[in-house]
Amino acid sequence: MSQREPKPSERPPTSNRRGAERIDVTWSVDCEADATFLYASIANISELGIFVRTNDPLEVGTRLRLTFAPPGVAEPFVLEGQVQWVNQLRMLSDNPNPGMGIRFVNLTEEYRQRLIRTIRTIAYVRDATN
User: Using CB atoms within 10 A as the burial measure, which of 16, 38, 74, 104 is most buried?
Assistant: First the structure.
């Protein structure tokens, strides 16, 4: 099997790679863009964005509305995002992580702080149990 170099649209932009601590999670997320509605799952989250695991990622540049509710959070997050990169499902190939990297856009300060608190709580609880 040959190692194919991913196309630029399939790679996370260098400027966004690990720009913030990512926390592995498995949360349901609803992604809505124009006439497309996608039920998927979040594989990891940071204060900058999420990775959505899906076999049918949207195109790079697509704006979408994300709705998700971490466990223990009373009010769900409803955020705007933009697809930054995709990892296409490749049949007959080793690709364990098909999906799309989504950057949060137009975050209000209130939502940003709420998101940071949620992520820090998850990270703290995980560190405390290890």
Answer: 104
Token code pair at residue 60? 């790079």
pLDDT per residue as tens digits for the range 59-96? 999 999 999 999 888 899 999 999 999 988 777 666 66
Of 43, 29, 21, 30, nearest to 96 (Cα)? 43
Which pTM was predicted? 0.77
Q: Which helix (H) or strand (E) holds 113?
A: helix 109-129
Residue 3: inside a domain, yes or no? no
Domain that holds residue 123: 8-129
Q: Is residue 2 part of a domain?
A: no
CA atoms of 68 and 122, how far apart (whole Å) = 15
Q: Does residue 1 form part of some domain?
A: no
Domains identified in the chain, total number: 1
